[in-house]
Write a structure and sequence with these properties.
With 302 residues, the chain is α/β, with parallel strands linked by helices. It is built from 8 helices and 8 strands. The N and C termini lie far apart (42 Å).
Length: 302
Amino acid sequence: MTVTRDADKAVLAGENPLMDWAKIVDCGDAPLTFLDNTVALKQLEKAHKVSICLREVKISSISSVDSKMYPVAERSNQVISGREANTTSKSSIPRIITLGGDHTTTLAALRSTFERWGSVSVIHFDSHIDTWDPDVLGGGISHYAGVNHGTFLHLAHEEGLIRNSSIHAGIRAPVLRRKGDILNDRRCGFEIMTARDIDRVGVNGIITKLKERVGDSRVYISVDIDVLDPAFAPATGTAEVGGWTSRELLSILDGLEGLRVIGADVVEVAPIYDNPGETTVLAAAEITLSLLTLMVQTPVRG
């Protein structure tokens, strides 16, 4: 079967965000060290601030018979989030989707987001709350130990990056302190929708709660792939049974149409642990498309 360029990739939605008004740019991979988390985080923040852009240069053939314009990679010192968007009639500030492994990467993304958009409401899809106090998860041993994939939302709150209208969805993992962790989570501005809440209120109930919580504020959506049950996303570092199906999560994301989404990420995907059918990677790719669709559906002016 031949798939044409204008084929509709979203049968259920009846639209193709890749063929809409937005221009999508792949900013490449961020080179990170695995030896020091704090250094890696600084490298990721720098990656948000240094982009590899394409410029056209005229290259003549050796025979000088033919001259053509070719795209050549060129490093730009402009901040990615600070560059002017390609479609200024819709929005002057680019919106970034980060794809990653360790969830700590969201902290760097939120710092970058704050510089252009201010504080945001976070919709956090995950099986864990990730608002642990660094003195609890990290042992208070050092700053290095305290910056990790379970404390980044606590740190984001302390830095004033996120609003007190944020919410978790899909939570089901145990906490370290039964009362203390939940109280700290509320202090960080979050409400909780557990994974099993979907059995009580359904997909539409989850959607309604998420929308009511963030209201008309600017929204950052972070998706930890372990919000899905391991049956649908086995390739992740801290899998928790009893999660949502990929269909349920995609339906919830589709239901968030109209929110002012200014940034997003899909994280904790570990392809090396995936099965031959690449179940996790396929789910992550479809989730990313859903996030992109939300951004295209609702332009947000800076």
